[in-house]
Amino acid sequence: MDIKTFIAVGENIHCTRIFKTDGKFVVKHEGGHAIPYKNGGTTRYMPIPKVMTEGADWEAGKIKHCAAAIRQGVYGTGADRDAGMDYIKCLAKSQEDSGATYLDVNVDEFSTDVDERARLMTWTVKLAQEACSLPMSIDSSNVKILQAGLDACDRKRGAPMLNSVSLERMSAVDAAIKARAVVIASAAGEHDLPCTTEGRLDNLSKIISLLERNGVKRSAIHVDPLVFPISTDQNNGKLFLEAVSRIRNIYGPEIHIVAGLSNVSFGMPGRKLLNQVFTWLAVQAGADGGIVDPMQINKNILQKMDTNSEGFKLARALLTGEDEFGMNYITACREGTI
Fold first, then answer.
1. How far is CA 319 from CA 6, 194, 232, 275, 311, in A?
2. pTM for the complete prediction?
3. Which of 25, 64, 139, 152 shows the smallest number of beta carbons within 10 Å?
């Protein structure tokens, strides 16, 4: 498959992102705990704030590493503050180096304080822009936070992206239009998330029409048909791919099709392989991008995938509903054959 374009919305600067505390990404360091990371080939350490080693997430064996870095960068002092800022900058630069088109920034899970999160969104966007030349994608469930992020965007690098607008988030449409942003238009309905193809198409038709009536060009619309985990319904992958194909046929080449493609692998082993194969299938069906980790999914990686490998074939069978309950794929993962 010849992939000419893949719009990678880099998802790594999210306060939702988690490392396991007993894994390789968290180590004991200088009397506490830290997250090792690379900067120019050199290993550095971002200390985890003590307050974050005393909460429920830590007790459950998890640490929100972007939230930890932002906390150090904003509220830390000295070397701790510098490490937090450097960590965020490295996340931005590494995604740009891996082929990202936009950098998605989300601070929603930092705290419950909207004013604080709006300030942190501004701070994080400005910091990420110091490290890379990419336009930002501003992601939040709160319009005030979306606006703060959009206001912080450097327009010299291109129009920012707003993630996202939908029938359940009509107030975000005004923010997108005011900011002259490109938009991710979600298939979410006013009161639910459609899992059928027709439900997706109906909701997208309404939100796309609204955007176009308000002057948003079709080429500035990136539709998200919604990805649901294959672990909850073996038909979720097949239905998403069907929706992608229908959207491309209806709206033609101008509109963009992106989605949070890694959602498909929640609850499954071998998530990296599943995400890569699912993205390949989505592009084959008509998608031209995704909200992804660009270090694992980008145009070059997709172009070089071995579609004749056993792993690819088993993942594709699972994702298209041919492998009932995923038994063949799961067995292969357990046995270590893929």
1. 20, 19, 12, 10, 12
2. 0.96
3. 25
What are the b/e assignments for 151-188, b being 16+ CB within 10 Å? ebbeeeeebbbbbbbbbebeebbebbbebebbbbbbbb
Q: Per-residue pLDDT tens for 280-309? A: 999 999 999 999 999 999 999 999 999 999
Supply the DSSP string of 55-94, one letter for each residue.
Answer: SHHHHTTEEEHHHHHHHHHHH--HHHHHHHHHHHHHHHHH
- Angle (nearest 5°) at CA 263 between 257 and 268: 140
Listed in sequence order, the residues at least 6 apart from 271 whose beta carbon sits closer than 8 Å to its beta carbon are 262, 265
Burial class (CB in 10 A: 0-12, 13-18, 19+), 28: exposed
Give the helix ranges, DSSP H, for 98-180: 114-131, 143-152, 171-179
Closest CA to 276 of 256, 310, 301, 258: 301
Q: What are the residue ranges spanned by the domains of the chain? A: 7-16+100-335
Domain 7-16+100-335: assigned CATH number:
3.20.20.20
Pick from 131, 145, 188: which is nearest to 165 by CA?
Answer: 188
From the list 281, 186, 166, the residue with the least C-alpha distance to 226 is: 186
Task: Please report the sign of the dihedral spanned by the C-alpha atoms of residue 210, residue 214, residue 219, residue 223.
Answer: negative
Strand pairing category for 62-64 and 18-20: antiparallel
> What residue type is assigned to position 331 of the chain?
T
Distance from CA of residue 96 to its chain's centroid?
A: 14
Distance, CA of 30 to chain centre: 33
CA–CA dist 119, 137 (Å, integer): 16
Which residues on adjacent β-strands are paired with residue 224?
186
Distance CA 307, CA 180 (A): 40
Closest by CA position to 37, among listed 76, 2, 89: 89
Q: What is the mean pLDDT of the chain?
A: 97
Cα separation, 12 vs 61, whole angstroms: 20
